[in-house]
Known about the structure:
The chain is mainly beta. Helices cover about 10% and strands about 60% of the residues.
Amino acid sequence: xxxxxxxxxxxxxxxxxxxxxxxxxxxxxxxxxxxxxxxxxxxxxxxxxxxxxxxxxxxxxxxxxxxxxxxxxxxxxxxxxxxxxxxxxxx
Length: 91
């Protein structure tokens, strides 16, 4: 039986699935009705971002499984690479 992440990756080839990643920074800030979560992962130099309706307990120091894709955002006229998280679970 296929896992949820396998089903997502089969439908959308641009998705990347990683397991056992260590979070070394987790910030949460209000963004209207949503909470913007930003994660920094050990061994990666780009932020992983996602939005949720509620705050989470901190993920700093936790191991997680994530499904994400590469995206970019423009800040002050400069383009930055980010990872948009589609699915995240504690390891």
